[in-house]
Amino acid sequence: MEVTTLVGKEKNANRVINVVSIVIPVVVALILGIRQKFDLGSWTTYLPHINGVINSLTSVLLLVGYYFIRQKNVAAHRAVMLAAFTLGSLFLIGYVLYHISNESTSFGGEGWIRPVYYFLLISHIALSVVVLWFVLRAVYFALTKQFELHKKMTRWAFPIWLYVSTTGVIVYLLIKPYYTH
């Protein structure tokens, strides 16, 4: 394959990753701003609890994937990381479905836990926007066998993604008592 073809494919992939990394957070923000909710059924009230489990599993898979790559078990690392990526995608779908069909739950905690909750929530949200670009790039580099670039990207992607998935669980556990369903 010609070098110009490879460069063109690389530019297209970068463009897609950049667009997706911007479009998804913007669409999610717009969805959160919609006041009109759609009746998708009562099953959607279970989605925060399912997403809590998904985030927990994602955190575990990220750590297991890290362990496997440190052991140089590339095949196991690949399988676990693709499972984590799949769970992240399912989380996003569940999150959107919940928020288009249910009102947001307010945190009712008081005292010292309130600023802790909001710090975790705000940092979780901010980094969840940022991590998408890093994760998409890391996955792209791995799938295209650009392992040095993959390794460089995961130096950022891994700790941010682990923080986002773990704080997602903590935020969920802190707000869980205030769900009405």
TrEMBL record:
A Pfam family reported for this protein in Swiss-Prot or TrEMBL: DUF420
Top-level taxon in the UniProt lineage: Bacteria
InterPro entries listed in its UniProt record: DUF420
Residue spans crossing the bilayer: 16-34, 46-68, 80-98, 118-143, 155-175
Protein name: DUF420 domain-containing protein
Transmembrane is among the record's keywords: yes
Keywords: Membrane, Transmembrane, Transmembrane helix
